[in-house]
Amino acid sequence: MTFAYGQEAVLDGVSVAVEPGEFVALVGPNGSGKSTLLRCLLGLLAPTAGAVRLFGVPPQSLGQRWRLGYVPQRPALARDLPATVEEVVAAGRLARTGWRRRFRAEDREEVEHAMSSVALLDLRRRRVSELSGGQQQRAFIAKALAGRPDLLVLDEPVAGIDAESQRRFRDSLTHLVEEHRSAVLLVSHELGAVAEDLDRVVVLRRGSVYFDGPPAELAATGVSLGVHRDDLPLWLEGLVAPGDVRH
Ligand SMILES: Nc1ncnc2c1ncn2[C@@H]1O[C@H](COP(=O)(O)OP(=O)(O)O)[C@@H](O)[C@H]1O
Ligand SMILES: [Mg+2]
């Protein structure tokens, strides 16, 4: 597919597939089109050319929305949201069970598990609007996890989250992939902790797919994942010359 906001294509002839149960990381310099690609995948933007299929259908036609979980790069700050952490996470579960059905023990367990996996159990009765940005972000991650989606799409979910919460969150991601065979598409600068669990890494560069394959193959090209300096991942050094990164 190809996508342009204006005259110039941001994504130019990009082809990417995520199979059921696959854990895929999407990486690339700032401005390389990662968030745009996710928004096209979710049906929030329509490609200028080409097509997107989500579970075999155009994103707009997807009936069972719970099959898709999405944590956007910067969720709207929940300043006016009167709900508690637990209610927000339970809403993620309700998307799957249906609003009219009674919550079962199993649903409660999923909600507990999701809150625990981002270390939010202590804050469960607090209003989301009273939490810090990082804590709110964790609440929205837990909401997405609680629905046990078939595909979970996360756009830089750990930015601004402390190390302990990041570790727990990664454990719950790998659990989701291994136990529930969910597919995960993760955009993140910090892949060090999950590098071993990834099935594939897709590297976007200037609107095109620069690399698509197992992390070991990427490492063999001299590009390393996860370690970074000054917020610019070190792996970029094998990929781009200084001043070559478009913002
Ligand atoms: N809403 C928008 N309108 C116009 N240009 C945009 C918009 N969002 C992103 N862009 C531009 O598209 C390019 C890709 O952006 P983005 O998909 O956010 O990249 P990434 O997520 O990899 O940092 C950038 O040049 C960015 O400035
Ligand atoms: Mg982005």
Write up what this structure looks like.
It is a single chain. It contains six helices and ten strands, in the order βββαβαααβαβββαββ. With 247 residues, the protein is α/β, with parallel strands linked by helices. The longest helix is centred in the C-terminal third of the chain and has 18 residues, at 163-180. The chain is 30% helix and 16% strand. The structure holds adenosine-5'-diphosphate and magnesium ion.
Describe this protein with a few key phrases.
binds magnesium ion, two-stranded antiparallel ribbon, six-stranded mixed beta sheet, binds adenosine-5'-diphosphate, about 15% strand, globular, about 250 residues, disordered C terminus, 10 strands, Rossmann fold, alpha/beta, 6 helices
Strand order of the largest sheet: 4-5-6-3-7-8
CATH class of the domain at 3-75 and 149-238: Alpha Beta
What do we call the CATH homologous superfamily of the domain at 3-75 and 149-238? Answer: P-loop containing nucleotide triphosphate hydrolases
Percent of residues in β-strands:
15-25%
Bound molecules: adenosine-5'-diphosphate, magnesium ion
How many distinct helices?
A: 6
Per CATH, what is the topology of the domain at 3-75 and 149-238? Rossmann fold
- Tally of strands: 10
Terminus-to-terminus distance:
22 Å
Helical percent range? 25-40%
- Biggest sheet layout: 6 strands, mixed
Order of helices and strands: EEEHEHHHEHEEEHEE
Secondary structural class: alpha/beta
Contiguous uncertain segments of 5+ residues: 227-247
Mean pLDDT: 83
